[in-house]
Design brief:
By secondary structure, the chain is mainly β. The chain contains 2 helices and 8 strands; from the N terminus they run H-E-E-E-E-E-E-H-E-E.
């Protein structure tokens, strides 16, 4: 019985969990007011609509470093909002565009609308992954 338990333990410990810790580094934030809201998306259909993961972080020295544990390998995109007034949402001008600073992974730019999934997506496929985003 102990031998069987040891074999099962060896098999399960050698299986690749296909997960990673994701470090998100956000730099060049205009000021330390408010907070940063991070949205992590795993599909084009959900991108900028319904995040898989939503986190808030405090800004220190115009920078944020956030670690998300145990993200499954795959394609993802990240959106960032500098929520300067701490109302937990992105604010918009009356004529449409955001009135608070925003950014997405790969520092993808928006042209005539929000950035596209194809420009913002990246692949997590190793034990540790890191993404740098400039505001």
């Amino acid at each position: 019985m102990n031998k069987l338990f040891a074999i099962i333990l060896i098999i399960f410990s050698s299986i690749n969990t296909s997960k990673s810790d994701l470090t998100i580094i956000i730099e060049n934030i205009e000021n330390n007011n408010g907070q940063i809201i991070v949205g992590i998306y795993n599909s084009e259909a959900s991108f900028l609509k319904k995040p898989l993961i939503r986190k808030k972080a405090r800004i220190v020295d115009n920078r944020v470093e956030l670690i998300i544990k145990d993200i499954e390998y795959g394609e993802y995109a990240i959106s960032i909002v500098h929520d300067e007034n701490n109302n937990n949402k992105i604010d918009f001008h009356f004529y449409g565009p955001p009135s608070e600073k925003t950014a997405v992974s790969n520092n993808a730019k928006s042209t005539f609308g929000p950035p596209k999934w194809e420009a913002a997506k990246f692949l997590i496929n190793k034990d540790v992954s890191s993404v740098n985003i400039n505001m």
